[in-house]
Amino acid sequence: MRIVRRTDEAPGVHTIEINSRGDGRSGQFFMVSVPGVGEAPISVASGFGRNTLFTIRNVGSVTSHMNKIDTMGVRGPYGTKWPWKEYEEILAVTGGIGIPPVRSLIEEINDSGKGRKLEVLYGAKTPEDIIYKTEIERWMKKVNVHLTVDSGDENWTGRVGLVTSIMKDAEVSKSAGVFIVGPPLMMKNVVKEALNLGYREENIFLSLERRMECGIGVCGHCNVGEFYSCEDGPIFNYHKVKHQKELFL
Ligand SMILES: Cc1cc2nc3c(=O)[nH]c(=O)nc-3n(C[C@H](O)[C@H](O)[C@H](O)COP(=O)(O)OP(=O)(O)OC[C@H]3O[C@@H](n4cnc5c(N)ncnc54)[C@H](O)[C@@H]3O)c2cc1C
Ligand code: FES
């Protein structure tokens, strides 16, 4: 696929747009490849009915080549989706590079015209690390988006603190679907706080990212206990996986 646009989002993070109207849904991922280097699973940041977008943090061999290429390999979409259609109200809690599957969730719900109450809580390390700054301003017209940073700077007038610290202010009911994606420690603490606040564990969904090779349930690299993250996930119901000892490792 040809890369038609590239946007710098934050230090070490950029968004790539490819010239393909995707059929990927929010929560799903594609295996993207740099010819001669390798493949990596990357979430659908924008998909169904729009050009496909991927937002990528440069961490290693494949991702560090992504800002140097004009064409890339793409296979998918794979994996499970956020089950937003099952909920009238949704609380999406995300941190760091976890935001791409929440971006596609927001777009999918808005594009569908199905009135859902969606509230988004997003935590970044610093104001500089906030991804999708322009889009967030646009989303705020339709969706309740709350930002917080671990540490602010002289221009930051918003919240400072972990994303868990703003969960109690969410205005959705306790029967809302709670969708969580971010670093493992953040997800662990968000689940704990969601349960403390009275959300029901069967309504909590996690995006569990694991190292992947095949992406299609063949190689066995991505297991979460008895499940494969690539086929049974990445979106898992917390109730279903909570006893897996690998869950938050
Ligand atoms: C379903 C899914 C969706 C993802 N979506 C995105 C996304 O939208 N944007 C994005 O930037 N990244 C995303 N990732 C993570 C991304 O796949 C990895 O960062 C990428 O595979 C790293 O490949 P690399 O060759 O650049 O790094 P490598 O050279 O393979 O590794 C660099 C470092 O990252 C660690 N690492 C690699 N992959 C993982 C992983 N899955 N979990 C924990 N540590 C890892 C390695 O141990 C090593 O320390 C997603 C992962 C999954 C499973
Ligand atoms: S990546 Fe091969 S089984 Fe999941």
Describe the fold and architecture.
The chain is α/β, with parallel strands linked by helices and 249 residues long. It has helices at residues 100-112, 133-139, 184-197, 238-241, and strands spanning 3-10, 13-21, 29-34, 38-43, 51-57, 73-78, 89-95, 117-124, 144-149, 159-160, 177-181, 204-207, 223-224, 227-228, 235-237. It has 2 domains: 3-78, Translation factors (Elongation Factor Tu (Ef-tu), domain 3), CATH 2.40.30; 84-207, 3-Layer(aba) Sandwich (Rossmann fold), CATH 3.40.50.80. Helix content is 15%, strand content 33%. The strands form 4 sheets. It has a 7-stranded mixed β-sheet with strand order 10-9-8-7-11-12-15, with helices on both faces. The chain has a 3-stranded antiparallel β-sheet with strand order 1-2-5, with no helix packed on it. It has a 3-stranded antiparallel β-sheet with strand order 4-3-6, with no helix packed on it. The radius of gyration is 17 Å and the shape is globular. FE2/S2 (inorganic) cluster is lined by residues 212-215, 217-222, 228, 230.
